[in-house]
Amino acid sequence: MILERDCVAYSINSAIKIDSKRVSNFEEIEMLSDCITYQIHRYNWVDPIRYKEKLISKSTKSVSMIYFKNQLTIFLFGNSESNISYVESRLKRLFPIHFERVDLYPKIINKLSSNNHKFNVINIQFVRVKDNLEKWVSIDTNGLSKIELVKILSEEKPQTISLYDELNKTYFSVDVNSSLSFNDTSTISDIVGVLEYVSLCIS
Length: 203
Description:
Helix content is about 25%, strand content about 45%. It is an alpha+beta fold.
């Protein structure tokens, strides 16, 4: 089982039952894993490519989903924002629920500024403007005090924050657009562990 590297989070207002299902002749929901607290699915569809109203080829696309049942959160993994947006719109049609994208970035910033979290901040990247010139700054946080770290998080408006989850031994990052990114070496178990904790933070 392979997940795309990047994902975004959604909250729903009631539990749903997602099974393997053929949505249309060209679309399907595929159940990959059904566990006690979460499910993993893949939404597959065929995207026709046309030129001057003529069908010239077909492209198979997919977006993976991890649904945490207790927290009522869904994470969509895709290779492009348009693919994720497409599946978001399809899920809204298929399930009569309130389906809202979660702005993870400020929630994670707030969590990191507290003393109640299990993530280590590894690196912070931001843009600093001086004399009308933009400079990309990357700071390794090793050796920074908690006060210095919180000051950077609050004042510099980081573009990307690289994190390490000690419990799951997993590196990942969050960017200003609230997209989470995992390394290619991260296992499904690693990713589920991180996202389950993130779900608890936002539910």
